[in-house]
Design brief:
By secondary structure, the protein is an alpha/beta fold. It is built from 3 helices and 8 strands. The strands form 2 sheets. Strands 1-2-3-4-5-7 form a 6-stranded parallel sheet. A two-stranded parallel ribbon has the order 6-8. Helix 1 (about 20-30) links the parallel strand 1 and strand 2. The longest helix is centred in the first third of the chain and has 13 residues, at about 20-30.
Length: about 170
């Protein structure tokens, strides 16, 4: 693929055999300055829940998004859908300086990591958290450009318990 710019990329990985290739696919998309990236690492709920009961683990347990993923000036829209009980973590800071729309699904996010993500998104206008547990306080008071917030959760997923969003 030789085009220097890629507008959209939708990557769906459903098998454990996909895991070794995910980093390469993401790196390729980023090298082509992808603007709208969707990463879907989910499985049908009934399959994932069955695996969780049998194995006591998430489908993509052990896989974490590569550190280079958290530094991109080309992302404008980012959708991340993890398998049930998936976790997003990075030891490094987040720098998505052009990101306007962020949607996270089935992500276990702790307050500190979400704060790290949001601090690296200075032009964020839209935030969607679907079934994202572990959050206690969602503090959006410093994000003056954020205009739309969607928080969708069903039991037993908990969080956030408190939302501070004076500009929405």
């Amino acid at each position: 693929y030789t085009d220097p710019k890629t507008k959209n990329l939708y990557l769906k990985a459903t098998k454990r055999e996909d895991i070794p290739h995910i980093d390469r696919w993401i790196k390729c998309a980023m090298s082509h300055n992808v603007e709208n990236l969707s990463l879907d690492f989910s499985r049908p709920y009934y399959e994932e829940y069955k695996l969780f009961l049998e194995l006591g683990s998430s489908f993509f347990e052990g896989y974490k998004l590569p550190d280079f993923f958290y530094n991109s000036s080309s992302f404008k829209q980012l959708n991340i859908k993890l398998s049930l009980f998936g976790t997003m973590v990075s030891e490094y800071s987040v720098s998505w300086t052009s990101l306007q729309k962020l949607s996270l699904t089935n992500c276990s996010l702790f307050d500190e990591f979400l704060a790290k993500i949001l601090s690296g998104c200075p032009v964020l206008k839209y935030l969607r958290l679907y079934e994202c547990g572990e959050l206690k306080i969602l503090d959006l008071s410093k994000f003056l450009r954020l205009r739309i917030l969607e928080v969708i959760r069903h039991l037993p997923v908990q969080g956030p318990r408190k939302i501070l969003a004076p500009h929405i």
